[in-house]
Endonuclease/exonuclease/phosphatase domain-containing protein (Hibiscus trionum), 155 residues
Amino acid sequence: MVKIIYWNVQGALDLGFNCPFKLLIKKRRLDIFAIMEPYISGFEADNIIRRSGFDSSYRVEAQGFSGRIWILSRDTMRVNVLVFSNQYVHVHCAMSDGGGSFFVSFVYASLDAMKQCYLWEQLMALDPGSRFPWVVGGDMNVIGSISERRSGSQH
């Protein structure tokens, strides 16, 4: 069984990040850990990723308010980045023991409705069809009801 977690951390330097991050890694024995909105890059990001114990990583750095995705993986998976943008990373994953392969799209959608529409068009174009498993997950930045809103316009 492959274990993948998507986590919108909203700040990898926050006090509430480090302990849960280490605990999830230790207890869940994850194959892939996707982190959205770490709010850090460069040297600080390198240090956190290096200390995580994962064997490889891939990052989409922030471009304005979009594109904050880290993908950390163990050597139990061969993760090949096929396509990326500031809203998603699409990868092909193959189990190192030859046990199978699948596609994953890690998403951190823009808050802008037009950019979200473009994202969905791009994702639909990536659909591998029924021949291969495909997982799409992440932060879609979609509000299901007005009660979920925390700030901003009510319209």
In short: DSSP finds three helices and eight strands in the chain.
